[in-house]
Write a structure and sequence with these properties.
14 helices, 7-stranded mixed sheet, Aspartate Aminotransferase, domain 2, alpha/beta, binds 4'-deoxy-4'-aminopyridoxal-5'-phosphate, single chain, 4-stranded antiparallel sheet
Length: 383
């Protein structure tokens, strides 16, 4: 028997209630029940995005929602700033290039977070910049960007702040309305504990205004149509209704725990994971690590690709490896979505055993002890 444990930053494990709900008979997506379902889901998503703005439901992965943001907000002659500190920041740039929009890149060394001052300086030189495109958590490195500070800079200017919260929604704080973020995009298979297949976008009034003059081609991801339909409890085209059913279960769990508590839980899991990593004598990769996942810089002697493969095949434990230039050099452990303290204990104890097994000198048990101590301290502080 081999039990499987999934610690990737998407897809993430799905709660049993949500899994079971997908086995119920499929329904017509324009039925009264579906309208009620979609309205309920859209309302609960507002709580998750910490906004009063409408949330648009798309049938796509996260990249579709990113593409929707680009095509609905921008015109061919616009200039934007793209913060590139990893694979997903790069994706914003690739999307702009695909649609012929020129961008200024702010390149940040992978593992680091952008210095908001650099963005302010760049905007000072180019005040006509239409938008700043950033990630919240750069999943390829585990680094968190300071979106609150970026929003302080953009909200005083005509520049929109567009945030990819694909991985970090529910795990790292993002107060769209309070901070003044203009656009947020995300998707189903990460903090929202639902299978891949649903994308989300939400825009504030400034961003909706921009959609009026945007001239890039758009059809499937026309957010105006998605918004209009959403107000009626519908979507413009046949939606992935099965996943919407599952999403409702997941959202019910999130809303009954409370969005702020969900984020606090992720903060606790991340703190314990980081503490464990250090206790094992390993280094964190990100300078300002997110709550979403922990990236670990592997010692030179460890072949990261072979390690990830061995852990999955032999131990049934799936971590994510490094991407692009980080391939083989880091591993990424997500503590995202349907995760609690004992999931972290499993992830860390497997890491210790796996490293020991490949001959790396690791103090077995030290990581688990460190994580347990963090959890114990946290629970006694709460009591
Ligand atoms: N942005 C970020 C920050 C991500 O983590 C991911 C997926 N790992 C994406 C974008 C792309 O999302 P998808 O694969 O769902 O299209």
């Amino acid at each position: 028997m081999k039990k499987h444990f999934l610690f990737t930053p998407g897809p993430t494990p799905i709660p049993p209630e949500a899994l079971l709900s997908m086995a119920s008979p499929i329904d017509y997506h324009r039925s009264a029940e579906a309208v009620k379902l979609i309205k309920d889901v859209l309302e609960k998503l507002k709580a998750v995005f910490q906004t009063q703005n409408d949330v648009m439901l798309l049938t796509s992965s996260g990249t579709g929602a990113m593409e929707g943001a680009v095509t609905n907000l921008l015109s061919r002659n616009d200039r934007v700033i793209v913060i590139r500190s990893g694979k997903f920041g790069e994706r914003w740039g690739e999307l702009c290039t695909a649609y012929g929009v020129e961008f200024d890149a702010i390149d940040v060394e992978w593992g680091n977070s952008v210095d908001p001052q650099m963005v302010a300086e760049r905007l000072g030189k180019r005040p006509e910049t239409k938008a700043v495109l950033s990630t919240l958590c750069e999943t390829s490195t585990g680094a968190l960007h300071d979106i609150e500070s970026l929003a302080q800079i953009t909200k005083e200017r005509p520049t929109l702040l567009v945030v990819d919260a694909v991985s970090a929604l529910c795990a790292d704080d993002l107060q769209m309305d309070n901070w003044g973020v203009d656009v947020v995009v995300s998707c189903s298979q990460k903090g929202l504990m639902t299978p891949p297949g649903l994308g989300f976008a939400t825009l504030n009034d400034r961003a909706w205004e921009a959609t009026k003059s945007a001239d890039l081609p758009r059809y499937y991801f026309d957010l105006r149509k998605a918004r209009e339909s959403g107000l009626e409890g519908s979507v413009p085209y046949t939606p992935a209704i099965t996943f919407i059913v599952a999403l409702q279960y997941a959202l019910n769990l999130i809303c009954s725990e409370g969005v702020r508590n969900v984020i606090a839980r992720h903060a606790r899991l991340a703190e314990a994971t980081r503490s464990a990593v250090k206790a094992l004598g390993l280094n964190l990769f990100a300078s300002n690590p997110a709550n979403t996942l922990t990236s670990i810089r592997l010692p030179e002697a460890v072949d990261g690709k072979a390690f990830v493969k061995m852990m999955r095949e032999k131990h049934g434990v799936t971590y994510a490896g490094g991407q692009s230039g980080l391939s083989g050099k880091i591993i990424r452990i997500a503590h995202l979505g349907w995760m609690g303290e004992y999931d972290v204990i499993v992830a860390i104890s497997a890491l210790e055993r796996g490293l020991a097994e490949i001959g790396y000198d690791v103090p077995i048990g030290a990581g688990v002890t460190a994580a347990q101590e963090v959890f114990h301290r946290q629970s006694t502080n709460e009591a």
